[in-house]
Amino acid sequence: MIRNIPNKYTQSMLLECINETHFGKFDFLYLRMDFKNKCNVGYAFINFINTEVVASFVQQHVGKKWGRFNSDKICSLSYATIQGRRALVDKFRNSSVMEEEPSYRPKIFYTSGPNIGQEEPFPGPTLNKESARGHGAARRRVSSAPPHNEP
């Protein structure tokens, strides 16, 4: 996770900053957003392609100020609970964030071939949205029902 990101950064600004030094060296990026206030919450999930790239990112960015908005925030990096592109995609593909505007959604990228560094289409959900909503509604109805008193 990239931490201490100035709240005014958009995902495209963060992507531009990372691409200056690590273009094609990561395959997943998601800047967490506060949808109500339309600003980020200060951290992003990123999946670098290998540990050498992580070390390079640390050397070039961690402990340094961000380049925009005259912010005093210092870039830091930490491990997230969920690791790896596949696990991150699986976590977010069924998330309600995928219903938000495209600039607020997680992104995946090509890391080889002629499209290196370009955004890749994000896989669709694995759950049927209607059945998922229906099951959730049924659970809410059951759990909110008053207790049944038997004679």
Automatic annotation (TrEMBL):
Residues 113-151 are annotated as: Disordered. Residues 1-94 form the RRM domain. Keywords: RNA-binding. This is RRM domain-containing protein. PROSITE patterns: RRM (PS50102). It comes from Linnemannia schmuckeri. InterPro entries: Mei2-like_Rrm_C (IPR007201), Nucleotide-bd_a/b_plait_sf (IPR012677), RBD_domain_sf (IPR035979), RRM_dom (IPR000504). PANTHER family: RNA RECOGNITION MOTIF-CONTAINING. Pfam families: RRM_2 (PF04059). One of its GO terms (molecular function) is RNA binding.
